[in-house]
Every structure is written in C-alpha cells, then in structure tokens.
Amino acid sequence: MSMPTIPPEPHRPNRKEVIIDLLESIALEEIALSHILNAESEKIQAFVGECLNFPTKPSSKEIIKFNKGVTQLLESVVMKEWILLRKLENVLDFEDDCEPHHKKCESRCHCSPCHSCHFPVCKCRCSHKKHKDHDCYPGK
Length: 140
Fold this sequence. Notes:
The protein is mainly α. It is built from three helices and two strands.
C-alpha cells in the first residue's frame, strides 16, 4: 500500500506561510493564557480582600477549596505551556528542514516525495545525509 499524496492546488499555502501561521497560532494561544492568568489573579485578589476586610471571613475549608482550584488552573496552564513549547520546537525543526543542505544550493532545497517510497528526496541531488541514506538515492 502506498502513502497517500495530496495534489497541489493554487490555494494551498507554501512552507513559509505555514510556518508563519503556526507561529501566529502559538502567539494567540499565549495571549489567551495570559488573559486566563490575569483573570485568575483578579479572582485571587478579590478572595484575599474578602478574607481580610469582610466580617464574614471564609472558613479554613473554603480557603483550602479555593487554593485547590487555583492550583488546578495553574497546573493546566503549565501543561498547556509545555505543549506550546513542543509545538514551537516542532515549528523550528520544520523550518530547519527547509534550509539549504549545502553551500552549492543557492536557493532553498525543494524536497519532494520519492515516487516509489514517498521518502523526501532532494531535487538538487545534494549530498545531505538524510537524503544519502535513502534507499532510492541515485548514488546508492
């Protein structure tokens, strides 16, 4: 069974546009997390103000319950930050894969899938290790 291929279409973004879109999506998620953290900090300030200034002070049980809720939210934000970091690392790796493989390539290397196995093969037939190790590489 062969790997599925997606036919090129004029409305598809190129690699540069995809990388920009991915970076923008990371930035938007970071902004959303900052809003969540800001709202949580305002909630904490309101709760602490209530504890100190009002005659109906919350019980120890209510304080512990509130603290657990804050902790759960912060743990979720930390996990989301870790996921965003991995996404950013993947985008950077993807961008590195688009760099020229050697100095002889004046433009970016345009890799396309091999017709028999769909492994990305460099059209400029460079000596990049990733392509040289490929079974269908013409030098093998």
